[in-house]
TrEMBL record:
It comes from Sedimenticola selenatireducens. InterPro entries: Biofilm_reg_signaling (IPR052155), Chemoreceptor_zinc-bind_dom (IPR025991), EAL_dom (IPR001633), EAL_sf (IPR035919), GGDEF_dom (IPR000160), HAMP_dom (IPR003660), Nucleotide_cyclase (IPR029787), PAC (IPR001610). Residues 311-444 form the GGDEF domain. Residues 148-222 form the PAS domain. Residues 86-137 form the HAMP domain. The keyword Protein biosynthesis does not apply. It holds the Pfam family PAS. This is EAL domain-containing protein. Its cofactor is Mg(2+). Signal peptide: none annotated. GO terms for cellular component: membrane. GO terms for molecular function: catalytic activity. Residues 453-708 form the EAL domain. The chain crosses the membrane at residues 67-85. The lineage of its organism: Bacteria, Pseudomonadati, Pseudomonadota, Gammaproteobacteria, Chromatiales.
């Protein structure tokens, strides 16, 4: 056993501990028993008894103390809490109050103070109030604007000149403005909720069919429908107004249709104006006749109608003759009056179905339909012209007026209205040119030719531009010297399909226009270029002759063209160029021609008068035209051996040239005898198929290198015979022709000599010569005398050949033909020796010239 203190305590009895506390505290009394032994001696038992009252009381006491302290603390806490709550409550009450005031006055704010939370609350309230106030302000403004807009819309709607009707999506009227009310005859109060078709009834102007209501047209497209014209609105009382309308859906932002708006305008005035303008646009103000525009319409209709009727339609164009002088003399006011009177007279003579239109000025068009014959048209036109020609009295003055009228008949002239008018116009010009105060039917054939010509001119122009033209060259030779002197440049068209086209087929399409000059420039340039090439090849003697068309020669730019061409070929001396002009070009304006020729001479260029003898050339012309060369026309040269008239011309031209000191060239030399004759006559420059045909440029040099002059020319080269000896040559040539004609019949040819010439050897041209000129001049020569029996034999044989042929004895005829050829040679030999004898002895008047 440990050492311990044993304290005995007494429990104060004043303090009683409640039993619940004792129970609750769990403090109980206890008893402890212990045997007391010592040294093995048992001292007894010690019983220790503990009473619980004391600890219970102490614990109770302590608990009571604690509770008292706690209560105090709680009291204090309560007091604090109550105080706090009181302040918060004031703030909250203020907030509530502020809220109430805010509803009435948005400027209301609370003072921010007190507890943090209360402060936050106050700030939050104020912020919210600011926001609400701003929003409300914006709202008010927006509302104001809306209000204004709505007012404006309303005023607009009410005062707008157009009628406006709105409907709901189902098409029931929701609103309409006074104009719509007035146009439809429906007061808005009654119209509202009525179907639109009821209030707004429209028909097509022409057909009077009920028109589709515009909002139905919208069913397809949700946009504004096009303005519909030519509509008539039938009002409630049945009255009508021409209107134009358009409709549009009223859409929400999301695209939903919330109705339709229909705008309709009264177009009565517009229509009236249109009508007026329309009339002015289609009529001539002075005569009140249809003008050109309306005429086109009428003419189209007339042609279309005529196609159905199968009758004739006359389209006439009338032009007053000499109206301008009358107009000038009487004054314009009277002129106008005259036009009106003339119009009235024309209308009198025309039928109601005819159209008279004024094209302007003093030009009128007549369209006469349903004619059965040309006669009928002519009768009407004749009457009309007669009536027009009657005197007019204007302000006491008497005026006379006639007209020229051209017309065409459809469908004889099967063409379009425009061309009909053009044809009438052309015929009118013909009427004017043939003396005025008459009518003239259009000549379709003539027009076709003219058109074809135009086409061809166009084709030629393109060909020229495309380089399809070129020059051929025909030599000119000096028969006496047997040398080439130059070439004439002759235009050719190398047509892609037709081949070489000669100038005869294109030159006449180049007349009267710039095209001729164009060709002229081309020819000049090309020919000079060719001379330059010849010269480069050492062929320095050759000149070139270029044909100049009359219209080019007389053109003001001719000399410039010429100078340009020369300037482009500085290496060609102008002396190498010769220009050939025909008389007609020269004598059209002699002064001008003479000046141009003089200018050419200044440039060093020679001039030839081409085709000399065929035109009007006379001594006086020749005197005034300083040309250098006369070219005897080939038509005279061709027949110079046959036709004494041509021979006389050729001779005269050669004489003229000698007289005037001009050179002379003969063209169209086809046989050597022509050359001989020309030589004998004194013309030694010749050109013709007998020498060479025109040839392409690249053949020229080759031809010149191989060409040989005819031997007979050399024979006569230095001899000039008198005219009296020419018949010998002619006789020679004639004899050959006679033989040829007879032999030709064996090949089926026709006998080209007369029966008399065949049978009588004194009646043919050789016989004539023999008995007359020949006998007189050569009768003393034996050669001459020996010819007579030969000649008689020729005629006998000729007759026999024809006889044999007629009997079908062809073989015998052939034998005789060979004999005839023999005889011919003998006669020609005789003639040749006669010529030689003449030359040798100077018998006759022939004389030798120095070489
Ligand atoms: P032209 O000036 O009288 O030319 C002579 C014409 O006669 C040429 O015809 C030529 O080929 C032809 N001719 C030449 N020798 C003979 C012959 O022995 N017998 C026959 N029967 N005819 C012969 P082409 O080339 O057809 O020219 C015809 C006309 O055209 C020319 O007649 C001339 O007036 C004109 N011409 C030709 N080329 C041009 C040119 O470039 N410009 C102009 N303005 N006219 C030209
Ligand atoms: Ca010529
Ligand atoms: Ca000629």
């Amino acid at each position: 056993m440990g050492r311990g203190q044993l304290i005995a305590k007494t429990v104060p009895t004043t303090q009683t501990v409640p039993s619940w506390f004792i129970r609750l505290s769990g403090i109980k009394g206890c008893e402890h028993r212990q045997q007391v032994q010592s040294g093995g001696a048992d001292y007894g038992e010690l019983i220790l008894h503990c009473d619980a009252t004391l600890p219970q009381t102490e614990t109770w006491q302590r608990a009571l103390n604690r509770v008292a302290t706690l209560g105090g603390v709680i009291m204090v806490l309560f007091i604090i809490l109550a105080l706090t709550l009181r302040t918060s409550l004031v703030a909250l009450t203020q907030l509530v109050d502020a809220y109430r005031r805010f509803l009435k006055d948005h400027h209301t704010r609370v003072a921010v103070g007190g507890a943090r939370e209360i402060q936050q609350l106050g700030s939050a309230f104020n912020a919210m109030a600011d926001e609400v106030e701003a929003t409300l302000k914006a709202l008010a403004e927006a509302q104001g604007r809306l209000q204004k807009e709505a007012e404006l819309n309303h005023v607009t709607l009410m005062s707008i000149g157009d009628g406006v009707i709105t409907t709901d999506p189902a098409g029931l009227v929701t609103q309409m403005n006074p104009v719509a009310e007035q146009l439809t005859g429906w007061p808005v109060m009654e119209a509202v909720q009525q179907p639109l078709t009821e209030v707004f009834h429209i028909v097509q102007e022409g057909t009077r069919e009920t028109a589709i209501n515009p909002i139905f047209r919208l069913a397809e497209a949700n946009t504004v429908t096009a303005l519909e014209t030519h509509m008539r609105l039938i009002a409630r009382d049945g009255s009508e107004t021409p209107i134009e309308d358009s409709a549009a859906p009223i859409l929400r932002e999301n695209g939903d249709i919330i109705g339709y708006v229909l705008v309709l305008s009264d177009v009565s005035e517009k229509k009236a104006l249109q009508k007026k303008i329309g009339w002015q646009a289609t009529h001539d103000a002075l005569t009140k006749l249809p003008n050109r525009a309306l005429l086109a319409d009428r003419l189209n209709q007339a042609v279309a109608r005529n196609d159905r009727s199968q009758l004739l339609l006359a389209v006439g164009l009338l032009d007053l003759d000499e109206f301008k002088p009358v107009n000038d003399r009487l004054g314009h006011a009277c002129g106008d009056q005259l036009l009106k009177l003339a119009t009235a007279r024309m209308l009198e003579t025309l039928r109601a179905t005819d159209t008279l239109a004024r094209l302007g000025g003093d030009e009128f068009v007549l369209v006469l339909s349903d004619l059965t014959s040309l006669d009928e048209a002519e009768t009407i036109f004749g009457r009309l012209l007669d009536r027009l020609a009657e005197p007019y009295t204007l302000d006491g003055e008497v005026a006379q007026l006639t007209a020229s009228l051209g017309f065409t008949l459809y469908p004889l002239d099967q063409t379009d209205p425009d061309t009909l008018l053009r044809h009438a116009d052309e015929a009118m010009y013909t009427a004017k040119h043939s003396g005025r105060n008459r009518y003239q039917l259009f000549d379709a054939q003539h027009d076709q030719k003219r058109q074809a010509r135009q086409e061809q001119t166009k084709e030629i122009r393109l060909a020229l531009a495309a380089g399809e033209f070129e020059l051929f060259y025909q030599p000119k030779v000096d028969m006496r010297q047997g040398r080439v002197t130059g070439f004439e440049a002759l235009a050719r068209w190398r047509h892609p399909q037709r081949g070489i086209v000669p100038p005869g087929e294109f030159l006449h399409h180049m007349e009267d226009n710039e095209l001729g000059s164009k060709l002229g420039r081309f020819v000049l340039d090309t020919a000079l270029g060719r001379v330059a090439e010849w010269r480069r090849a050492g062929l320095n003697d050759w000149s070139v002759a270029v044909n100049i068309a009359p219209q080019h020669f007389t053109a003001p730019h001719f000399l410039d063209d010429l100078k340009d061409a020369i300037a482009r070929h500085p290496d060609v001396p102008p002396q190498c160029l010769e220009l050939e002009i025909v008389e007609s070009a020269a004598i059209a304006d002699l002064h001008h021609a003479a000046r141009v020729i003089a200018a050419c001479h200044e440039l060093g260029i020679r001039l030839a008068l081409d085709d000399f003898g065929v035109g009007y050339a006379s001594l006086s012309y020749l005197k005034r035209l300083p040309v250098d060369v006369l070219k005897i026309d080939q038509s005279f040269v061709r027949d110079v051996l046959d036709d004494p008239g041509d021979l006389a011309v050729v001779e005269a031209v050669i004489t003229l040239s000698t007289l005037f000191g001009r050179d002379v060239v003969a063209e169209g030399v086809e046989v050597a005898e022509q050359g001989v004759l020309l030589l004998r006559l004194g013309c030694h420059i010749a050109q013709g198929y007998g020498i060479a045909r025109p040839m392409p440029a690249d053949e020229v040099a080759g031809w010149a290198a191989t060409w040989q002059p005819d031997p007979s020319w050399a024979l006569w080269a230095n001899t000039q015979w008198e005219m009296s000896d020419f018949p010998l040559l002619v006789a020679q040539y004639d004899h050959q022709r006679w033989i040829k004609s007879v032999l030709n019949t064996l090949d089926g040819g026709r006998l080209s000599i007369t029966q008399q010439e065949l049978t009588n050897h004194r009646a043919c041209r050789l016989g004539h010569w023999y008995e007359n000129h020949g006998r007189r001049r050569y009768g003393h020569l034996t050669t001459f005398q020996e010819m007579e029996p030969l000649h008689a034999e020729v005629h006998r044989t000729g007759q026999e050949i024809l006889q044999l042929k007629a009997e079908g004895r062809l073989a015998e005829a052939e034998t005789q033909a060979r004999y005839l050829t023999e005889l011919k040679t003998r006669i020609l030999d005789s003639l040749a020796s006669l010529q030689r004898e003449v030359m040798r002895t100077g018998v006759g008047a022939g004389k030798n010239l120095p070489a």
